[in-house]
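Suppose you are handed only these lines of text.
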Amino acid sequence: MLKVTDAMGRLGTESAFMVLARANQLAQSGRDVINLGIGQPDFPTPPHIVEAGIKALRDGHHGYTPANGILPLREAVAADLCKRHGVDVHPDHVVVVPGGKPTMFFAMLMFGEPGAEIMYPNPGFPIYESMINFTGAKAVPIALSEEKDFSFSADDVLAQITNNTRLIIINSPANPTGGVTPKAEIDKFVAGLGAHPHVAILSDEIYSQMLYDGQDHVSLLQYPSIRDRLIMLDGWSKTYAMTGWRMGYAVWPQALVDHAIRLAVNDHSCVNAASQYAGIAALNGPEAAVLDMVAQFDRRRQIIVDGLNKIDGISCRNSAGAFYAFPNITKTGMTARAFQDGLLDQEAVATVAGTSFGHLGEGYVRFSYANSEENILKALERVGAFVSCHA
Ligand code: PLP
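From them, the structure of the protein bound to pyridoxal-5'-phosphate can be written out as follows.
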């Protein structure tokens, strides 16, 4: 009999991948499935980025690179952060990793152990809670509510800090809610952290360029008072439609960067070289592709939010960022999971139950609008039919 660690039993998962597998299975059996489940842009990676990856392979970039990423890439990241957020970042503090997730993993391995407490958004990206539990630390939810448009309350977060709190995770714009925390609330949060110098912050800013209605992104990097304990996560997956290239990075504080690089060496050695060259092309290339993609997401956002609000039993706040709508479905009388499963099996529309993002997601379902306007309109009709069938 094999004996795996108890920690393995505490590891959760990301249900969006299970929904994707089920949706693919249905599609293979001939159903016309509309996938509003998975959180990845439906656009191809812009051609100049693809060409840079191909060129890198042709130019012979086939070997290992430094574990933290090639210097021109880290310099491009620093220049991009200066351009977008007006902040000064040293390229030596940037660690490039395969996607957004490894930074979370590393932060949790650095701070999580029995006796430690880590705060995380709930509903939130499921890997946070999963990884906290894996380390044996206590997962302390930051409750996000519809009434506050799913932004976090600085007072609530600060009030939950104890001597055992090691790390606070925040995510704005957020998955799965599309919520964006206003600057005034972030100002208050950072000011309050002054009284708790033992607490590190992981700010997941992977949707930093997916904001609507003229909002500017507020990066935690813009607050000098916490730079010595801030881990800022961002990456290429969402912004440049590069989920399969596995490219992400974090800016680490001086005290942690060597730990992060050591974890990278132990874990994956380095990100594949061709992706790193593609990543430089993404950061240094024309912005038009990103702006166009965001404009299309914005149009779809309005279509899906309006359409969902027209369905009896469903109400949906306007999402302020990312590419998710997170409607309240309690009045349909179904649980989130029953809604997700029923909608997929009966109407072939894939979504993800709010409970896949934490227990506070009950009563909500995540709709990713990374799909064509035509498919979104078709899906809305099917959702209407599904809900009226259950009325
Ligand atoms: N952070 C958030 C909030 C996300 O929603 C995701 C992906 O859905 C990630 C990080 C991970 O991104 P990646 O695919 O680059 O690992």
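What can we learn from it? The chain has 13 helices and twelve strands. The pocket of pyridoxal-5'-phosphate is lined by residues 39, 99-101, 125, 171, 175, 204, 206, 235, 237, 243, 248 (CB under 6 Å).
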